[in-house]
Amino acid sequence: MNDLLRTIINAAGVPGYENEIAKILYDELKKTCREVSIDTFGNVIARKGKGKNKIMLAAHMDEVGFVVKHISKEGFLSFIKVGGIDDRVLPAQRVVIKAKKKDILGIIGTKPPHLLKDEERKQLLKYEDMFIDIGCKNKEEAEKAVSIGDAVLFEPNAGVLNGKLYYGKAIDDRVGCFALIEIMKKLSVDAEVYAVATVQEEVGLKGARTSSYKINPDFAIAIDTTIAGDTPSIRERESCLKLGSGVAITIIEASGRGLIVNERIRNLFVETAKKNRIPYQMDVIDGGMTDGAMIYMNREGIPTGVLSIPTRYIHSATGVFNIQDVECAITLALESLEMMAKW
Ligand SMILES: [Zn+2]
User: Fold this and answer.
1) Per the residue annotation, which of 63, 192, 201, 253 is the catalytic one?
2) How many C-beta neighbours within 10 Å does residue 80 have?
3) Which of 40, 184, 220, 278 has the fewest CB atoms within 10 Å, counting from its CB?
4) Model pLDDT for residues 86-116, shown as the tens digit of each residue
């Protein structure tokens, strides 16, 4: 795995606590874009190129995580979830608490099944009944290490499966952030292109709302992850997206409550992919939204498309993706930007 990609995936960025990842993306974008800034809301905005059209690219830099809510007298931490995380993926996961002085390692603990009564065992375990164990013997000791309000994320674990597939925490949407950097590096079109690493997507597409209002682009492309369907227990009609089969062109999100793609942009993506022989798949999803859903209905409506990377085990401690799909997204975005510049 490329060092930059690994750094981006492993960096911390729970919604509202994106400083660490923002700094990395700011420094990377600064290498190829003359103008880079961090706005009031925390979005990193880079600008490159000149032309009659303004085009916005967006990828969110926040990741699903937790915040410390309470410290018990025995020294265990209660937490809230920030972003959609299924409680079933939490027990025994290693987490990192971004405490003021230094990072603190913790384990999400639960009552052992051996001690559960029959009825208890049938119930779904809820996050409210879990705790983070940081190895302290009491509240006083724990308070020296962490504070209420500290952000908590899954422990960084980026790596490679069978030499081909990449995995790590925060794949949603750090692969999109990586694509943004690569696109801006290679970009040379006659348009004013803005790359925005947005904040707080996982809690309501917030950074996309403020940044697209400010930029007021003519067109926009969001780059995000989507649900892969190529693992046991997912039927093909639930998701037919496969890792390694190319970039996913999103048509409709959350059964229409999210983005419904602009027809001109949808056709542009498909025609451009065909012309340039870029592998692609069509993505129609019942659940899940991207920054595109917010951008497309901001101001008087902004024509927007979404390019997605199929990802397994999204919103858990470890997602899995194929880097070739990311490369397809980068190429398709670059070729499409060239066409959009002429619109
Ligand atoms: Zn996402």
Assistant:
1) 201
2) 13
3) 40
4) 999 999 999 999 999 999 999 999 987 788 7
